Amino acid sequence: MRIDFQDRQGILCGGNWIIDRVKITDRYPEREHLANILSESLHNGGAAYNVLSDLASLKAPFPLAGIGLVGEDEDGERILSHCRALAIDASGIRKVPGVKTSYTDVVSEKSTGKRTFFHSRGANARLDSEHFDLESSSARIFHLGYLLLLDKLDQVQEDGRTKAYHLLARARALGFKTSVDMVSAEGDGFAATVRSTLPAVDVLFLNEYEAEKTTGIGLRGEGLDSAAMREALEKLIEMGVREWVIIHSPAGACALSAQGEFLYQGSVKLPESRIAGTVGAGDAFAAGVLLGVHQDYAMSECLRLGVCAAAACLTHPGSSEGIASMNACREIGLQFGFRESSYLPQSLREKA
């Protein structure tokens, strides 16, 4: 039964549930060379797990719920226990016997914060459309991620659309607003998988690498507010995104609506001495934006909250531990200020 968007409450996140095993090293070694592990710890990982954890830390004033698969193992129980502690409804997270919970070894270089990921797909590889009981949910937003890291849902069907597209289309028909995030994967099927999913997406999150891979427009080395970035945003709207395309990077974020409204928000000028790691910053940004979208904030305010949540995330090596309430995150932005546009030509400045 369809429930209209305005009559819904809460955010439902489906997709990747991962345990991140974060190792801080003195450097990232060349092959056959050695680096020293300075510290290691376990943290939440994956789009669904991270975004919900972040929303709980932001003190989101609405229900939170998750859908996904974990193994019948210690990591799976750790995820379920953590959700219960955060008041996240985990009834949609199922245990799969004989399969390990997905995990990622995250190697983070202390001096730069740059990360390298070694991922075991585990239970997430089995997540399929049948596991999503969307009909019983009255959540307002359905967030799915990561596209390109969900083996079953990334499959292109006979009609040329992915299973993820059909899942998102079902969600929209029920009255959800849909949002999607993706992973910076390699492979020839990247653009085809993403493009065949976009017409069922209301809000799309991606970084400049993912935008370049999807559109074929060279973006790395360009400003977030450059003409090339505007062209990429427009092309993604033309591919079918229904409301907003949002591209984020360490410099900030830019967004374009289906009606042609262009927005730019610089990132927080957080001192390097405050940066403990960059794991989870993209998901923290998405959580901040989605909280604002749920509350009907103007998109400019959503982007501002997103970059503040991302900055808070950077203060801890884990994915969510640095994040506090909305007001605490906003204070970080007020304390350090925001990066200003340095690329925007007059023609785009008038539209921003």
Task: Give a written overview of the molecule.
With 352 residues, this protein is α/β, with parallel strands linked by helices. The chain contains ten helices and 13 strands. The protein has a single domain (5-15, 47-69, 87-96, 133-349), classed as UDP-N-acetylmuramoyl-L-alanine:D-glutamate ligase. It has helices at residues 47-57, 74-85, 163-174, 190-195, 208-215, 227-238, 281-294, 299-314, 326-336, 346-349, and strands at 11-15, 18-25, 37-45, 64-71, 89-96, 103-109, 115-120, 141-147, 177-182, 203-207, 244-249, 252-257, 262-266. The strands form two sheets. Strands 5-4-1-8-9-10-11-12-13 form a nine-stranded mixed beta sheet, with helices on both faces. A four-stranded mixed beta sheet has the order 3-2-6-7. Helix 7 (281-294) runs antiparallel to helix 8 (299-314) and helix 8 (299-314) crosses helix 9. It is globular and about 55 Å long.
* Low-pLDDT stretches: 344-352
State the domain count.
1
- Kindly report the name of the CATH homologous superfamily: Ribokinase
CATH fold-type name: UDP-N-acetylmuramoyl-L-alanine:D-glutamate ligase
Give the CATH architecture.
3-Layer(aba) Sandwich
What's the multimeric state? single chain
Task: Please bin the fraction of helical residues.
Answer: 25-40%
Largest sheet: 9 strands, mixed
Distance between the termini: 39 Å
Q: What is the residue-mean pLDDT, rounded to a whole number? A: 93
Strand content: 15-25%
Give the strand tally: 13
Shape: globular
- For the largest sheet, list the strands in their spatial order: 5-4-1-8-9-10-11-12-13
Number of continuous helical runs: 10
Assigned CATH class = Alpha Beta
The Rg value, from CA coordinates, equals 19 Å
Order of helices and strands: EEEHEHEEEEHEHEHHEEEHHHH
Structural class: alpha/beta
